[in-house]
Amino acid sequence: MADTKPDKPGFLSRLFRRKAEAPAPAPEFPQAGGEPEAMPSPPATAADDLTAAPPTVTDASPDTAEENKVPPELAGADLQPVEGLDPEGTNPQEPLPRIVTETGPELRPDMAAADLAAPEPAPTEVLPSPAPRTKPAAARGWWQRLTEGMRRTSSSLSESVTGLFTKRKLDDATLEELEDALVQADLGVPAAMRITEAIASGRYNKEISPQEVKAILAGEVEKTLQPAAQALAIDRSKKPFVILMVGVNGAGKTTTIGKLSQKFRQQGLKVMLAAGDTFRAAAIEQLKVWGERVGAPVLAREQGADAAGLAYDALQEAKANGSDVLLIDTAGRLQNKAGLMAELEKIVRVVKKFDPTAPHATLLVLDATVGQNAISQVELFQKAAGVTGLVMTKLDGTARGGILVALAEKFRLPVHFIGVGEGVEDLEPFTARDFAKAIAGLEATS
Question: Is residue 290 packed enough to be buried (19+ CB in 10 Å), middle (13-18) or exposed (0-12)?
């Protein structure tokens, strides 16, 4: 009788380094080279005439080392390789769909013609098209950016005006409500009273349209702001022209320095920056980034250095390298008022020792979102540093843009720039007519 080829040992059997004992198969047909050995017939069952499947449970041979025997908890388990898992321990693979027949498992008919040698390549991932780029802010024009930035303030006033003067006569109650609305928009009590009186003049107890009220409002605001609308003039005979930047933290002081630097550079001026806010390492690094961006040298020291000494060194450096403009940043920790104001006074004294006419401009950067608190800021910084002009930022983030009217009414200081966004182009010279029409919600006119 010819020897039959032994079955391939199971995965766990090979893992335990032994050869599984498997019963000799009972083939249905004669094999080449001899006749099959006679096998005892299986006991009859009540189920069809199917034969029982050969057992797959094996035990370790008596001579197998004790450490290589099957653990007791695996006794009786199926130790054959699990279909669909690579016996070498690599990633699992999805088993092929099969149909069990009398002659054994077969491939499904719809998969018979499939090429199983290599998996079908995964479909190429189609990335979504990038979103269309928005139109640059500069291309929108300053008026459009201003009206969009002032929308929260103008909407608040427009809603009040429209609600008050729709099918109503101009009586005492209506005028009082209008005055309250103007005060709530932070225009200040004097400006609110003056605007209310102008609207009531010759129109008392008569109907007036909301559009007419807006026109009067814009005219009165323009009258108040017109004296304050002054451009920042750089005297080129003073070289360097020293600009001291002051303001509380969060007002956008350092960012404003960067934006002004770029504007000066576009005018052909040579600019230098001094990182005088030595209390905050972030301010120093931020100013360095702006210097790299606009192509302006930055004089900086380590955090905690003497700000007045740095300002003096910056003046010497700016004079030596022929800079046209020197912008000096300063600390803005208003919560430490005494120390901050004393340091500002020291910076001014040291700068004047180098150039008695310096600083040639001291700009206070104000955050429009603080509302009436801006008034106290102007008072404090003007005493310490002699503020010569204002820059109002973040008008796009508040409904309290009317505070600029109250500041112009009270202090009569020039307003050089206003900001309505984060971009360099969103900081522009202040014009009274444009601001007045934007706050009233009117369209631009030539």
Answer: buried
- Spatial distance between the Cα atoms of 14 and 64, rounded to a whole number of angstroms: 13
- At 273, give phi and psi (nearest 5°): -120, 145
Q: Which two tokens stand for residue 279?
A: 């209390």
Contacts of 315 (CB under 8 A, 6+ apart): 240, 242, 326, 351, 354, 355, 358
Q: Which residue type sits at 414? A: P
Predicted TM-score (pTM) of this structure: 0.67
Q: How far apart are CA 253 and CA 394, in angstroms?
A: 11
Tens digit of each residue's pLDDT, the chain (446 residues): 444 445 555 555 555 554 444 445 544 444 444 444 444 454 554 444 444 445 444 444 445 455 555 555 545 444 444 444 444 444 444 444 444 444 444 444 554 444 444 445 544 444 444 444 444 444 467 778 888 878 888 887 888 777 787 767 888 888 898 899 899 889 999 999 999 999 888 888 888 888 898 999 999 999 999 999 999 999 999 999 999 999 998 899 999 999 999 999 999 999 999 999 998 889 999 999 999 999 999 999 999 999 999 999 999 999 999 999 999 999 986 645 677 788 899 999 999 999 999 999 999 999 998 989 999 999 989 988 999 999 999 888 777 888 999 999 999 999 999 998 888 888 999 999 999 998 888 875 54
